[in-house]
Amino acid sequence: MFDQILQFILTGVTVGATYALVALGFAIIYNASDVVNFAQGEFVMMGAMSAVALSAGDGLPMPVALICAVLITVCVGMLLQRFAIAPARGASVVTTIIITIGASIFLRGVALLVWGKDIFGMPHFSGEMPIHIGEATLLPQNLWVMGGTAVMVLAVHFFFNHTTPGKAILACSCNRTAAHLVGINVGLMMLIAYGLSAFLGAMAGILVAPITFTSYDAGVMLGLKGFSAAILGGMGNPMGAVAGGLLLGLIESLAAGLISSGYKDAIGFIILLLVLFFRPSGLFGKASVERV
């Protein structure tokens, strides 16, 4: 029984790490622009699908394809901000949500036209030889997902706390007018925030694609799970979003293993509803937030 629990935990941490990156992308954009970006899941899909397409057959070497896939997704994120979000500045929350949902549908439609409905796989980064921990096993790709997530979370933390652009984005999130008055280029900071969010989404897609495969609609469920994780950790709290992602992944994995895999997705959304009912600010969010 202990080995089974350990196996579920290892699986849950891997899945949760992916949710954490998606949730972190939600938190960054929400903090920077007060927008809930429901196209975040499509960044995950575009990163994975671009990497698969660029490396297929006699295409680019895998490392070059991965870099190009990330750059493509970052460009898509910046274009979304420039041509869809920025013109709607001052619009209501509902309007911006509708815009991001429309962008999500558009990106998914483009992916369907370009890559079709097939399901694609990516080669594992460092082989498929299982690693045994007692009776539990995990693939080297699981370690890539966990390690890559840890590195990116630490890098994001460093970016926002120890770099000038990161602090400028935080200043914009507190008060755009004041940030503009002290010389911060608010438009550029918003572009950087969306590019960073797209980067995290693309990396999540690339890291997990060798394990889960990918397709034009792979971002839908990952986006919803990432949103659930962001709500669970406290919307606007980056580290809370990471914790929410890991917690959601663990709960899903344990529920799928101990109860039934058929309830895995349902349990995630039940948790989301319970948090919204009883603690709308999330597990790690403040009870009330007042921007000054």
Task: Characterize this entry briefly.
This protein is mostly helical. The protein is built from 11 helices and 2 strands.
Q: Count the strands?
A: 2
Order of helices and strands: HHHHEEHHHHHHH
End-to-end Cα distance, whole Å, is: 52 Å
Report low-confidence residues grouped into runs of 5 or more: none
Trace the largest sheet across and list its strands: 1-2
Structural class estimated from helices and strands: mainly alpha
Mean pLDDT: 88
Overall geometry comes to globular
Helical content stands at: over 70%
Strand content: under 5%
Radius of gyration: 19 Å
Main sheet record: 2 strands, antiparallel
Q: Helix segment count?
A: 11
Topology:
Layout: H1 2-33, H2 40-55, H3 62-85, H4 93-115, E1 131-133, E2 136-138, H5 140-162, H6 164-174, H7 176-181, H8 186-212, H9 218-233, H10 238-258, H11 264-278
Antiparallel strand pairs: 1-2
Helix pairs in contact: 1-5, 1-8, 1-9, 1-10, 2-3, 2-4, 2-8, 2-9, 3-8, 5-6, 5-8, 6-8, 9-10, 9-11, 10-11
